Amino acid sequence: MIQRYVRAFWKALRMTLRGETIAGTSLRQPRLHEWLRAGVRCVDAVHAAQDRTGIALEERRALTLRIDKRDISLETTLQTIRHHLTTEYPYMLKHYTRFSVMAIQASNLNDQYLATRFAEADILPSSVRDALATLRDHLAAIPPADDDTADASVRD
After folding, report:
1. Is 118 inside any structural domain?
2. Going by C-beta distance under 8 Å and a sequence separation of 6 or more, which residues neighbour residue 136?
3. What's the rounded Cα separation, in Å, for the pair 32 and 38?
4. How many domains in the chain?
5. Is 103 part of a structural domain of the chain?
6. What angle do CA 42, 48, 54 make, to 5 degrees?
7. What pTM was computed for the model?
8. CA-to-CA distance for 88 and 21, rounded, in angstroms?
């Protein structure tokens, strides 16, 4: 068993010394992956706008709106959107089925709705609302699915 690890180590070392890399597999739905990365940057921009205006973390948690008969904080909303962009959606793309993109689009509508409600809220400084409007616009610009009909490995 240890011999297997030793062989892998030496092979990795030889490849590193030669400047070689392991050929990666191409990502399914590459436009969606880029959209996910850009979405995380938009969430970071909202946090940066909050930092510039001097809103502390406790104040961020206290910034709540009543949306659909429940109180929700801006911080929870941003954490949820980030979680979807960094964990849930990539997982769905990694374990791809023909319904993965549709599920991402459906979940994204809720995130977009929450970002819209906060972008329109008068309780926030204008710079934070502008960053939220950018996030909302980004979420609304989700790219359509790439054609996967040629890929026979797509599961039902």
Report:
1. yes
2. 112, 115, 116, 119
3. 10
4. 1
5. yes
6. 145
7. 0.76
8. 28
Residue 123: its H or E element: none
Question: Is residue 2 one of the residues assigned to a domain?
Answer: no
**Containing structural domain, residue 45:** 28-140
Angle at 30 between CA 26 and CA 35, to 5 degrees: 150
- How would you class 49 by CB atoms within 10 Å of its CB: exposed for 0-12, middle for 13-18, buried for 19 or more? buried
**Separation between Cα atoms, residue 120 and residue 102, nearest integer Å:** 27
- List C-alpha distances in Å: 87 to 37, 51, 84, 153: 11, 25, 6, 23
Give the CA angle between residues 127, 114, 86 to the nearest 5°. 90
Residue whose token pair is 């374990």: 95
**What token pair was written down for 138?**
């980004």
> Model confidence over 114-141: pLDDT tens digits?
999 999 988 888 899 999 999 999 999 9
